[in-house]
Amino acid sequence: MRIQELELKGYKRLGLSDIRHIRIDLNSDYQVVLGSNGSGKSSLLNELSPLPANPKQYSKGGFKRIVIRHDDKEYVLTSAFDGKSHHNFVVDGVDLNEGGTITVQRDLVKQHFNITDELFQL
């Protein structure tokens, strides 16, 4: 699994550093994240996961979008928060989460990447 891109908008933990929208291309083998204490470095790293975003961590209109390359497929996973949460799990252009629910999103992440909330917390 290779994360190619991460985009966050309305992520409250970065909002403390006055960052409302950030898009990061991760196409290099090495990445450096610099910042002072409390600037959101660890929070940013926490979002580098295919797991769906926690709605409590985003303001209304916010979203998390992550692009992953895995087993010769492109995955675009999105969690959007416009008053109601909606999640997309797109594999090579096909959305597998037709209902847009967080439960199905978690199941798809486990099925495709073998990652659960519990495993990620380790």
Order of helices and strands: EHEHEEEEHH
Q: Could you give the order of strands across the largest sheet?
A: 2-1-3-4-5-6
The whole-angstrom Rg is: 14 Å
Helix amount, in percent?
A: 10-25%
Poorly predicted runs of 5 or more residues? none
Q: What's the overall average pLDDT, rounded?
A: 92
- Counting DSSP E segments of at least 2 residues, the number of strands comes to 6
Output the number of helix runs: 4
Intertermini distance: 18 Å
Choose one word for the global shape. globular
Query: Proportion of β residues?
Result: 35-45%
Helix/strand structural class: alpha+beta
Largest beta sheet, briefly?
Answer: 6 strands, antiparallel
What does this molecule look like?
With 122 residues, the protein is α+β, with helices and mostly antiparallel strands. Helices cover 22% and strands 38% of the residues. It is built from four helices and six strands; from the N terminus they run E-H-E-H-E-E-E-E-H-H. The protein has helices spanning 12-15, 41-46, 102-113, 117-121, and strands spanning 2-11, 21-25, 58-70, 73-81, 85-91, 94-95. It has a six-stranded antiparallel sheet with strand order 2-1-3-4-5-6. The longest helix is centred in the last third of the chain and has 12 residues, at 102-113. The model has no long low-confidence stretch (mean pLDDT 92).
Supply the key terms.
122 residues; alpha+beta; six-stranded antiparallel sheet; 4 helices; 38% strand
